[in-house]
Amino acid sequence: MLRCCAFLAALILAGFTAFEAHADRRVAFVIGNSEYRDIPALKNPDKDAEDVSKTFRLAGFQVFIAKDVTKLQFEEKFRNYLAAVDGADLAVVYYSGHGFQIGGENFLIPVDASLKDAADIEVQAIKLDDVLEQLRSKSKIQVIILDACRNNPFPRKDYWLRDQLIVSGDTGLAQVKSSLNTLIAFATEPGAVAYDGTGALSPFSSAFSRRALAPNQEIRAVMAAVRRDVVKATNGKQVPWENSSLVDEVVLMRHDEPEGQQVMVEQTQPASERALHITGAAEAIDNHGVSIPVGVGPVPLKLDFPTRDPAVSLKLASYPATGTLSLPDRTLSPESSLMADEVDHLRYEPQIGSAAPVEVGFQISAGKASKRATMKLSPSVDPCDQAAGAPLDLQGVAPGRQPNEIGGGAVESCETAVKAYPDVTRFRYELGRALLAAGKVDEARKAIQEAADKGHVRAVFELGYIAASGTGTAVDSTKANSLYSQASDKGDPYAMAAWGRALFNGLGVQPDTGKGLDLLLKAAAMGHINAMNDLALIFQEGRNGVPADPARALAFLRAGMERQGVYSMSILGLAGRSTQTVAVCKPKVVQKIVTKIKVVRIPTPRVTVPGPAKPPQNDPGPAPWRGSGGDHDRPSRPSGSSGDSGGDVGTPETDNTGTPEGGSSGGFDTVSSDGL
Prior knowledge:
6-stranded mixed sheet; 34% helix
């Protein structure tokens, strides 16, 4: 009789497990900017971000949170988020902070933005359309929620956008045209202003956190409830609004277990035996510390739990600060419970970009007996990622190395990673980089092609580089441009720069100055230093119908310098700075800030760069380099030599480690350090 009860209980539990099985990957990026430096601080966004991130965690999302981020911090955190959201079923971005429109384009404002000059919007702010475009290329469904509909708080109102000087909108954000399967929600209607409210949270964020956890509610029903709450809280002054093209149903908080139905397990063991089970289970967890590789998906923890007793249950007492706990059939939230026979299937996926160890706390119970246990998990980056990861790879998990920085052991490390994780295409691409650096061109091209075929976007760009440079094959600029275009459409910043450069200058393709300029701007917005240098040259001289504006050129050079772009520094008359530090007493350092450049024109000698209007007839297409923006070396010319880019914008530069990388020519006759 007792055995039958236990068997029946196990069947019921199994039925529940099958009923609530969900394999969807759902990733949220929550941003709260409160502590602005040059404009008044906002009281709500930090608290909004904290509350909303907890809401998404409770709903079973993998959550990235960023508070009071600068532009550079946003770039880094957004790249990590994009790597995690690659191939996801649902990608969510929630932003609370300053935001406003210029010429129908919406911009989110980092905390270090000053926006004093007309060019600052392009290097200091975040264009919402760029964020949405990246999400579209990586996920099935996109949701962007903006509690940022405020006035432009900066004194300046006119800014450069592409090739025009545009006056910012009067109030609020502009309507966003969504693509298929996208929902964009605003705290208030287009052109109107949202209110901060009188509480710790804004009226909109407070209502969202409250309503989003309603069980099994489709997101459009959730947003309708949020709208009613905000209208009531603001006496009708603020009306939340959304634009939806969703064709799939989106449920934030799933709850599949029928209400009121409970699993009854008859206790057959004496209290002393149950206590032993709990003690053994707690010891198994407390003694289990494990290193978890980053970026390979959920990793089984292999706890080897000592009991399968259906009377033993576990409740999460503390959820890991970063990353996601899951079972094969569902993602766990901070309030999840699991049974003893599920513990051996527990998995953890570290958050990309976070290296700090985390702790997971469990409350283990059986009847009236209870004991707490804590497990320690340490995220780790695979040796292949460390040795051969590519800079700005949106499917990568490490900062990346230039080819001449890839050591001799990289091939072996990446071969081991490919064997251990055959489904992680990143390792196959990185193996190709390592082989290429080792001079094994045929093997490298094969590995890179396999990675491209399996969906690694940077590998597609790499094949374009191989075609453009004729590495181990004949030069084929048509093929190179086709591959650059494909990878650019998938959001790769290197490909955007290469394809944009080709279009802007008409290199092996029909010129399209507008699209080329736009792609260079998008690459620069993702942190591509060479794109910044290219843009500086374009704006300094004025090219292909784009008007000259030295102040705009300076803005991009300063942006490159902030990212340790040595060629940006050299144009500004600064020596390359080493990243190495020495443990000695520190003298007082007075920082010098670049505020302007002074162009001194000297009749002879003169450093010039051939104009892009008429490339040579034998032009091979995009020059075979890329920088940080660039990833392939090309011998540097002696200082002062004339450029020879075949009509391209770029010539070699040196990165902050002192190694050659692809870059942009200065285009300035002589640059003084006035103002330093």
